[in-house]
């Protein structure tokens, strides 16, 4: 038997973006139904390194990240839940002059945009971070960057949204979207109890790398591909650093957790796949962390896990309404940056729906930069196009 629910907004995707949008909409007395095919925070939002940074971003994202960090500072009070957020700083390391030149240039641009960063020479690296290897000739540091627990944040948003009226439906898969008169009218889904129809004039589609499946029911082709990111956690160690450490030269990063474990991750080429099994070669690659932090030699890796990113051709998210389908809002393709941006994007989406426009411009992320509408004899097709490189 088919069950129907009426709402002002349907949201597909229970990651940090979808849950944050649900929360901020409900705060403004908007009725929301959130549909998640597995569990809230069960995919990319809960399977990442937990970095919350503004430095080393594309300039289009930087202002969003800086605004989001202002929200992150108050999330524990806002949501009534400790998400283990701490501004412990972020150090981007260089082993070559070429990398150092890139960091200096990037630092100048960041300072001009109002983000305080420091560029360190080799002596300053030794003084500020004596636990690092001698191979580094310099670094760039941002004190306001930080980390949070990715397992907790989307769930905290989801719990907070539920407390103020959002219907959060886990283990519910959106199958197609019904459009009437050029406007979103309903989302058809399958849950454990049977068929479900959520009648709503707005749909926020925030399903990460799985967004393409649902969008294709509307003849909208999204230029997304999945990317596997592999992480690991070590045994607990005595605290000796607070920063998120990242070396693209060594293709490894590390950050401490409140539990005193060290979380590790890999930069560089990753597999274009939905497969979340850890490839055997990754275990050897994690050993490179010893080249970055020598005192971690001999520390055991307790477990590894993988997540699936939704990546766009230009590495920027797709945020905004789709031309020709009123009420259809995309928020996907965050290319590994959605965890930090989630709070501000969720709030801006709520403003777009309630106020008619967000308080910060999102034009750089509009879906139409990839898609143009092509009239055909019997349908409307969307064809991928790439915008010129920045």
Task: Give a structural overview.
By secondary structure, this protein is α/β, with parallel strands linked by helices. It has 2 domains: 3-47 and 152-224 and 314-384, FAD/NAD(P)-binding domain (3-Layer(bba) Sandwich), CATH 3.50.50.60; 89-146 and 230-306, 2-Layer Sandwich (D-Amino Acid Oxidase, Chain A, domain 2), CATH 3.30.9. It contains 10 helices and 22 strands. The strands form 5 sheets. An 8-stranded mixed β-sheet has the order 6-7-5-15-16-17-14-18. It has a 6-stranded mixed β-sheet with strand order 9-3-2-13-20-19, with helices on one face. Helix 1 (16-27) packs parallel to helix 6, helix 1 (16-27) runs parallel beside helix 10 (338-355) and helix 2 (59-72) packs across helix 10 (338-355). The longest helix has 18 residues, at 338-355. It is globular and about 65 Å long. The protein starts with a strand and ends in a 6-residue tail after the last strand. Residues 372-390 have low confidence and may be disordered.
Name of the CATH first level of the largest domain: Alpha Beta
Q: What is the CA-CA span between the terminal residues?
A: 52 Å
Major beta sheet, strand line-up: 6-7-5-15-16-17-14-18
Return the structural class.
alpha/beta
Taken from the alpha-carbon principal axes, the silhouette is: globular
CATH architecture of the largest domain: 3-Layer(bba) Sandwich
Task: Please indicate the percent range of residues in DSSP E strands (runs of 2 or more).
Answer: 25-35%
CATH superfamily of the largest domain: FAD/NAD(P)-binding domain
CATH fold-level name of the largest domain: FAD/NAD(P)-binding domain
- Mean pLDDT level: 93
Overall number of structural domains: 2
Quickly count the helices: 10
**Number of distinct beta strands:** 22
Low-confidence stretches at least 5 residues in length (pLDDT < 50)?
Answer: 372-390
Instruction: Report Rg.
Output: 21 Å
Helical percent range? Answer: 25-40%
Q: Main beta sheet: strand number and arrangement?
A: 8 strands, mixed
């Amino acid at each position: 038997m088919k069950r129907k629910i009426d709402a002002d907004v349907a949201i597909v995707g229970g990651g940090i973006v979808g849950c944050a949008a649900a929360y901020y909409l409900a705060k403004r007395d908007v009725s929301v139904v959130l549909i998640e095919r597995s569990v809230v925070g069960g995919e990319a939002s809960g399977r990442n390194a937990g970095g919350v940074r503004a430095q080393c971003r594309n300039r289009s994202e930087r202002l969003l990240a800086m605004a989001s960090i202002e929200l992150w500072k108050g999330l524990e009070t806002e949501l009534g839940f400790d998400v283990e957020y701490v501004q412990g700083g972020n150090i981007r390391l260089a082993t070559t002059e070429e990398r150092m030149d890139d960091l200096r240039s990037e630092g100048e641009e960041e300072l001009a945009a109002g983000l305080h960063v420091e560029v360190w020479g080799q002596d300053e690296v030794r003084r500020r971070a004596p636990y690092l290897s001698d191979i580094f000739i310099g670094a760039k540091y941002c004190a306001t960057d930080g980390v949070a627990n990715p397992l907790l944040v989307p769930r905290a948003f989801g719990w907070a949204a539920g407390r103020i009226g959002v219907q959060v439906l886990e283990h519910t898969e959106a199958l197609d979207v019904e459009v009437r008169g050029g406007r979103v009218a309903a989302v058809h889904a399958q849950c454990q109890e049977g068929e479900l129809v959520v009648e709503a004039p707005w749909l926020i589609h925030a399903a990460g790398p799985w967004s393409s499946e649902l969008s294709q029911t509307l003849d909208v082709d999204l230029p997304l591909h999945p990317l596997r990111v592999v992480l690991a956690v070590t045994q607990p160690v005595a605290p000796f650093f607070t920063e998120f450490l990242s070396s693209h030269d060594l293709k490894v990063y590390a950050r401490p957790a409140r539990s005193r474990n060290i979380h590790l991750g890999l930069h560089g080429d990753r597999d274009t796949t939905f497969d979340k099994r850890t490839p055997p070669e990754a275990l050897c690659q994690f050993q490179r962390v010893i080249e970055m932090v020598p005192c971690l030699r001999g520390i055991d890796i307790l477990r590894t896990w993988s997540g699936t990113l939704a990546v766009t051709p230009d590495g920027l998210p797709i945020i905004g309404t789709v031309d020709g389908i009123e009420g259809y809002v995309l928020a996907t393709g965050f290319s590994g940056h959605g965890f930090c941006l989630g709070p501000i994007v969720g709030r801006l989406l709520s403003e777009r729906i309630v106020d008619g426009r967000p308080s910060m411009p999102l034009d750089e992320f509009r879906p139409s930069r990839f898609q143009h509408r092509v009239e055909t004899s019997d349908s409307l097709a969307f064809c991928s196009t790439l915008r010129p490189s920045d």
